[in-house]
Structure formats: C-alpha cells, structure tokens
Amino acid sequence: MNWLKSTLSAAVGTQEPIYGPDAIQSVAQQADETPYTVMTKENLRWKAYQYTNVETKTFYLMADDGNLVMVQVIYSNIAGIHTTAHFNTKIFNLKGDSPHIWHTDALSNFMFDEQMLSFGADNLTITLNEEGDAYHIKSTVNPDIIVDLKITRKAPGFVAGKDGTSYFGTDPKNPWGSMYHGFWPRCAVEGSITTKEKTYDLTGRGVFIPALQGMKPHHAAARWNFLNFQTPTFSAVMMEYTTPPSYGSTKVNVGGILKDGEIVYAGPNNTVTHTDFKQDPESDWPEPTSIKWEWTGKTADGQDFSAVVDGPLGKRQDRVDVMGEVPGFIKTIAGSVAGTRPYIFQFSPQEKLKLKVKVGDTETEEEGYMFSESTFIS
Description:
Largest sheet: 15 strands, antiparallel
Distance between the termini: 22 Å
Strand content: over 45%
Number of domains: 1
Family: Belongs to the SVF1 family.
CATH class: Mainly Beta
Structural class: mainly beta
CATH superfamily: AttH-like domain
Number of strands: 28
Shape: globular
Keywords: Cytoplasm, Endoplasmic reticulum, Golgi apparatus, Lipid transport, Membrane, Nucleus, Transport
Domain Svf1-like N-terminal: 54-213
Pfam family, one: Svf1
CATH topology: AttH-like fold
Main location: cytoplasm
CATH architecture: Beta Barrel
C-alpha cells in the first residue's frame, strides 16, 4: 500500500503544506497597473514545457441552429518523462433525448511547426493563419467524428494583466508553478462536424481559450467556474479558480465583455456567486442551480463599468466524473492521498438569460445564451 501510494503521488501528487496566500502571485496584482493586454501571435505559441504541466487549446462553439460543441487539444507532460496529446470533441444534446456525443482520442506523431503556432498529428491539423486571427481545424483522427472548422477572431483577444499568468511559489523570483489563460471571446465559426448519423453545420459564434497549468492541476486549483455568454451585440466570458488551502484558498478571476472590434472591459475585478445549489448524491458536491456573474472595473477610456448575468442554470447538461475511467482502487487512493474528487458540472439553459451592462450612466440589457461549467476538485 505504501509503495502504491508513493507511486501514485508521483502522478497525482499528495496534498501540499500550507504555504499561505503570499505563495501565489495572482495575475490580479499585475492588473493594478495593467488591467489587460491585447493578445498577439506571441501569446498563441505553444510552450511545450519539459516539466509537469497541462497545455490546452479549447474552442467552444455556439451554432446559429442551437447546437453546442466543444473541440479541444490537450498536451500534457508528467514529470518531464511522459508526454501525451489528445483530441477531444463533444457535441451536446441540449434536448436531452439521447446521449451527448463525446470522443477523446490519443494522438500519434504529434508535433508543432517551427514557430510553435500550429499543431499537427496523424490525421489532425490545427493551423493558425499568417495574420494570427483564425484557426483551421481538420481532423479524421476518429472516423466516427470528422471535423473541418474555421474559427475567426472578430474582436481583440486579451490576457489579464501583462502576461495573463499567476505564479505559485514562496520566492516570487523563482516560482515553482503557474496558471495562464488567454481569451478570444468573440469569434465567427464556419464549417462542420460529421458523425455517423449526420453532419452538423456549425456556422455561428465561438470562443477560443488557450491555457496552461504549469504544475499538477489539483495543486493549482480546488474549484473552477467558467462562463461563455453570447448576445447579438456582446460576448461575455469569465474564468475563476480557487486555490487549495495550501495557497490560502485564494480566488483568481479573469473576465471580459466585448463587442465587434472592441474590448468594452477586461480585467480581474469580477465575482462568481452560487446563489442556490443542491447536494449531488453521486459526487457529494454542492451542485449549483443558480449563479450570479458580475464584472466590475473601468473601460479603456476610464468610465465606470459594471455588468451582470444572474439567473437559474436550468437542467444540468452533464456531470463529468473526471476520474471515471480510472480503476476503482486507484480512484479511492487518489481521493484519500491527494484529496481529489474531480467532477465537472456543465450547464446551458435553453431559456435566455439577460446580460445587463452599464458604462458610465448608460445601461444596456440584452438576452443571450450561455454555457457554463462549475468544477469541484478537492
């Protein structure tokens, strides 16, 4: 048992000591001087670090006909000795009359281009154009789900602060971990995904998020909340994580509100509140049933800014047991050794919610559709 525990800890890690909140240099500290920075091609380069990290490029697609899709590449390195890459696709069945279509496929012979901007593998290409404002994704990795999509940025992308990164460690000059997120919140999508049953026309809107967790994921965050909200005029995003007690249960929040061609607001002064919840018997986590998302700060020209989305989440679309494929005895030990019990709750209510935006004395209100995730890890 002790041998198994020590072997497992090399992969999932045991709980860390209590370092305290000073051991995380939140991106919010950068934002005191620089609320956000517009993304360039430089921000889109793959890092491919040679130590434990998880790097992702995730695309959330909301088609004009109501379909909701996630497409994602995960590139991960464990302890610098084992590197893997996966291509994930998920087509949500929002009507609930059949299972979601979910595929996660291991990639072979994966590589990057010389500039580390595009990614390829056997039967997969994810290519960034020369202008740095559009990705073309083509995949025949799995014959049951053929992907051919183009995602084009329609408003500037952003990172919070100067570099979009929070750093972990007791010595700020020599951090031992990091967390990075970038955002293209307002994109146009064209193309399709073809399954055995049908071809999905995914013409519509999208969000692209490049991210990197430069440490063991459950050491960086104990909980997550994510929102993608789209109205005819606005695109709203928010990503919040709460560190484990080892880093003072510190909340780090990044969000933004965009229109075509402009960032109305972006920064870290935002909050997520689970205004109502119910205890989920299977996961034993408090599943939210209603959430309030609030953005607060200044516009680029210095006007007071606030925005809110507040309302019920509707019927849960999915509850993902992240360790569902792990053998039961390992899952039990992982929970007892590392305190990890990761579940993702996904929501996309079919009833429209309202985004209320206030710039200076001018208030705007628009209905739109949302996709949100609440994740509990440890």
